[in-house]
Amino acid sequence: GWADLILGITGGIITFHRLGSTVQLRMDGGTHRLSVFACAAFCFGLFLSGMPIGHVIPRWFLGGLFLNSAISLLKDALLYFRHLPPSSITVFGRHLPSSQYFVTLGCIAVAIVASPFAGIATGLALSVFIFLYKSSESEPVSGVTAGSISVGRTKRPPWEITCLRRDGDRILVLFLQGQLFFGSAERVARMLDTATSDSHGGRVSYCILSFARVIFIDASAAQQVKTAVQKAARHGCKLLFCRMNEQVFSELWVAGAIKSLDTSMRHVLDDWGVQVEVAEKPGATYDCRIDPSNPHSLDHGHHDAEREMAPPPLRKRMTCAFVPIGSGAHDAFDTETDALDHCDDLLVDQYCYGAPGLEPYMLQYRDACIKGSRLDEGAFEAINRLPTGTMGRLREHCTVNERLEHYTVLGDTPEPTLYFIFRGALALIHQLANSDIIFAESGRLHAEVKGFAGRGGAGKRLRSRLPPGHVAGKVKFFLEDSAHVDADVYPILQVSSRVAGYAEVWELTRSTWRGLPADLRSAVLELGARCLADDVQHSYLVE
After folding, report:
1. Tell me: the pLDDT tens digits for 458-507?
2. DSSP letters along 271-337, please?
């Protein structure tokens, strides 16, 4: 050990009795700290004194001690297979030991024939070979799901959920794993070809690849992925990428597999400090212009890269651009829910709203989601099956916020409040408690906090996004104060930037609700119960 190295450097006598005595001590049960310390102190004293103990103690005793240690080590190596799982290879009905056991036997054989150093080198080479072989043979896909059983975190009305349950199998989500390199590149290409080929009857239109468990990808595998993207496009299927770390994204971007970045992915690149040249047409955005002389005036101007519309001659202009969900031809996203929301919106636009026989309130809801228009009270009542005129009567008891800017935080009032959404959307964001402690621990472990990686700042995670026609704040509103577990359990309500240029939200406090007429109070109670049940149903499908 280290003592022999020091003795060799200082010109001392190198013998093996120290190794033998240490092994013999452990074999005799001397594992207590005091016995180990005594043995170490004795050896250290011999080292300081320079006593030639190797000449004092008979050599046959030292040889026997060393031989006993060698037999013990050899016995442990030969019986090592007892501590290893058996391999899948069988001979005469019996499973052979693990390949690691044969590495041990190879090391011993080479050490006997050549030298101990050659045996160590042989073991290292065999271990590297086995690792590369098993990595190339391992399956690159750890899990798979379809859009019919997994949806994004944007809340959707029943008719859209029905459409996704029927046609959601056109979306395939593959969860990749491990290290993708030259040894596994062919398996990656074959897997993607199988997933996107016509073997599914041509129904798969979108294939989402999650790289959350992929820690590394080399240039050859990235080129195979690019080839798979081109081949899938010929089959009418589009590949989308999400949950990539910086190295994986860089390889796929340089290879040309990724062409267009979603807004969320751009934020992630900003956090990484990575700058890429993107030559693409931006998605549709809408610009909200408000005339302070007429509080009800609103003009939507559509903007793109080819055409700019001059603003109307207003005395004041407030710009609140947004990119609707499902807009653009993006293929790179931050999380699985971003990619699923994008594909879900494309599916419902084609297979739900492209079909005849829809009710007027359904079409109005769609306009509110993609154009940022306001959902009127009648459509809100139809969506939530309320009696006609309910929201008109309820308005005079609510605090009406007609123009809430993006990222405005609600719910900071001490009294529980219901929020009725008529324009825009509210994002329910979970703020991680004790984030400083947890993120410091994750930094020491070189790991990410599960579910809290990505954009939006440290310790935040999107729980749900509620579009127009939905109600927020239900859990805290209907639970009694004694039933509240912890204030940190409830998500933060924040105006989303993905559905409209601004939000219109009505606030109803619990004390005001208790003072409502009996029929109106009962209608709000039934609305809350129905919305809570619908939230639970939607949670069964959330990815």
Report:
1. 567 888 999 999 999 998 898 876 666 567 778 889 999 888 889 999 99
2. HHT-------PPPPEEEEE--TTSTT--EEEEE-SS--PPPP--S---------TT-S---EESSHH
Q: Which residues pair with 431 in a beta bridge?
A: 460
CA distances from 179 to 125, 134, 139, 274 (A): 20, 11, 11, 22
Cα distance between residue 305 and residue 280, in whole Å: 9
In b/e form, how buried is each residue of 87-107, taking b as 16+ CB within 10 angstroms? Answer: eeeeeeeeeebbbbbebbeeb
Q: Extract the tokens encoding 233.
A: 């496009």
Residue closest to 343 by CA, chosen among 355, 354, 330: 330
Q: How far apart are CA 415 and CA 428, in angstroms?
A: 18
Q: How far apart are CA 267 and CA 270, in angstroms?
A: 5
SS percent in the chain: helix, strand, coil, step 5:
45, 15, 35
Give the tokens for residue 524: 């709000």
Neighbours of 537 (CB within 10 A): 11
What φ, ψ does residue 124 adopt, rounded to 5°? -65, -45
Q: Shortest CA distance to 179 belongs to which of 143, 130, 137?
A: 137
Which conformational region is residue 455 in: left (phi greater than 0), alpha (psi within -120 to 50 degrees), or beta? beta
Taking the CA atoms of residue 333, residue 339, residue 341 and residue 344 in that order, the dihedral angle to the nearest 10 degrees is 150
Q: How far is CA 301 from the centre of its chain?
A: 36
CA distances from 508 to 162, 251, 422, 504, 521 (A): 31, 51, 14, 13, 11
On whether the CB atoms of residues 159 and 139 are closer than 8 A, the answer is: no
Q: How many CB atoms lie within 10 A of CB 321?
A: 16
Contact 493, 426 (CB under 8 A): yes
**Which residues lie closer than 8 Å to 114 by C-beta, 6 or more apart?**
none
Is residue 204 within 8 Å of 196, Cβ to Cβ?
A: yes
DSSP 198: G
> Residue ranges of the alpha helices (H) in 138-170?
158-167
Give the per-residue pLDDT at 75. Answer: 81
d(CA 281, CA 42): 77
**Cβ neighbour number for residue 330 with a 10 Å cutoff:** 24
d(CA 171, CA 347): 9
Judged by DSSP in three states, 250 sits in helix
For 78-106, what is each residue's pLDDT tens digit? 887 788 888 878 888 888 888 888 888 88
